[in-house]
Specification:
- It is a single chain.
- With about 80 residues, the protein is α+β, with helices and mostly antiparallel strands.
- It is built from two helices and four strands.
- It has a single domain, classed as Anthopleurin-A, CATH 2.20.20.10.
- Helices cover about 35% and strands about 20% of the residues.
- It has a four-stranded antiparallel beta sheet.
- The longest helix is centred in the N-terminal third of the chain and has 18 residues.
- The chain starts with a helix and ends with a strand.
Length: about 80
């Protein structure tokens, strides 16, 4: 039961941090520190480029999901240009 409480508190903390909206300069700093991932447009090669970045649960505003498969924990997202 104690481990369940720890997991729930950790998830609530992660949700709170990920839900915080950033200004444009702050967001640019965060983009540089994001974990890269492979989008569908990168091709099937495992040695291809990693043009996406990982977001917990779903993509933030201004980003779109760039993979055709679903994961419950994180999404591979690509920044919308324009």
């Amino acid at each position: 039961m104690a481990s369940l409480k720890i997991v729930l508190v950790a998830l609530m903390l992660l949700y709170t941090v990920s839900a915080r909206r950033l200004s444009a300069p702050e967001e640019e700093k965060v983009i540089e520190k994001r974990i890269p991932c492979r989008c569908d447009i990168d091709g099937p090669s495992v040695r291809g480029t990693l043009s996406g970045s990982v977001d917990p649960w779903n993509c933030n505003t201004g980003w779109k999901k760039c993979t055709s498969f679903y994961t419950a924990v994180a999404s591979c997202c690509l920044k919308v240009k324009g």
